[in-house]
Specification:
Number of helices: 6
Strand content: 25-35%
Shape: globular
């Protein structure tokens, strides 16, 4: 299985980009990770970059595609942030979200997990078939029936999270229970809330149908963000993965975005 991977990360209307995203893959296994430093916590940009770098470094050491590995990678990102907090009083409260996707291109399998409100969407035949659940106060309100799912973007508590990297004692994560079998044409989108806040799910699907490549899809998503955004809008980031069952080209021996 061949993978087309494209990343996007912009500051939006902020002075500093507290988002980070990157990927790495070898001959068989691929790892994609996106992290968003929490606003209001000094060092969010440090936290997100620590998470991404340490997760990918760990993946290169122990490559694979399993629920246990996703748990290990999320703990690795959390431990890296907690360790750095101890080095500086200014950074002791920094936190970050994380969403991680691993793919076995030979076995055609995928596994993912996340902490916080950075999301993963899985598309098949142009439709969303899997979506992560936010670790947020707004999501609990949806679960309890107080608000509808489509209202989550406009609630006053939308950005309040109950789980994030950087909290050793109350560290929570969510990982898919079993490996996911891939099909030709499956697409993944990892994105921060700065993107999904402005692009609703049916728009993601329509833009995917309109795009001829991962790069074009990312461009269309960004155009939608910019059209709906405002002067002080949040950082926005995305990582798109298009899976193609093609033997036309050989996969590179190693690819990294950093």
């Amino acid at each position: 299985m061949q993978l087309e991977i494209v990343t996007l990360s912009k500051t939006g209307g902020r002075k500093v980009n507290e988002d980070a995203c990157d990927y790495w893959f070898g001959k068989e296994f691929c790892c994609c990770v996106l992290s968003d430093g929490l606003g209001g916590h000094y060092g969010g940009d440090v936290a997100s970059k620590l998470a991404v770098c340490h997760v990918l470094d760990k993946f290169r050491e122990v490559q694979g595609c399993s629920t246990q590995l996703i748990e290990t990678l999320l703990h690795t990102g959390n431990d890296a942030i907690v360790s750095e907090q101890k080095q500086s009083a200014e950074l002791m409260h920094m936190r970050a979200t994380a969403v991680i996707l691993t793919i076995d291109t030979i076995g055609k399998l995928a596994v993912w997990g996340h902490v916080g409100d950075s999301r993963l969407y899985c598309f098949r035949k142009g439709q969303i078939i899997k979506q992560t659940r936010d670790h947020s106060i707004s999501q609990t309100m949806v679960d309890a029936g107080y608000i509808k799912a489509e209202e989550i973007r406009n609630t006053p508590n939308r950005s309040k999270l109950y789980a994030a990297l950087g909290n050793k004692e109350q560290f929570e994560m969510e990982v898919v229970p079993t490996v996911f079998s891939l099909q030709d044409g499956d697409v993944f989108l990892l994105c921060s809330d700065g993107l999904w806040e402005y692009v609703i799910e049916n728009e993601m699907e329509q833009l995917l149908v309109d795009a001829a490549s991962a790069a074009e899809w990312i461009q269309l998503l960004e155009e939608k963000v910019l059209a709906k955004g405002h002067l002080g809008q949040d950082n926005y980031s995305a990582l798109a993965v298009w899976c193609r069952d093609s033997e036309k080209t050989e996969p590179p021996s190693e690819i990294t975005g950093y």
